[in-house]
Amino acid sequence: MRESVEALWGWDEELQRQIFDERFDGTQFQVIQVDGKDVGVLDVDERDDEIFLKLIELLPANQGQGVGTSVIRALQARGKPVTLRVLTTNPRAAALYRRLGFRVTEQTPERLFMRSTASGASS
Question: Is 26-116 a domain of CATH 3.40.630.30?
Answer without folding.
Answer: yes
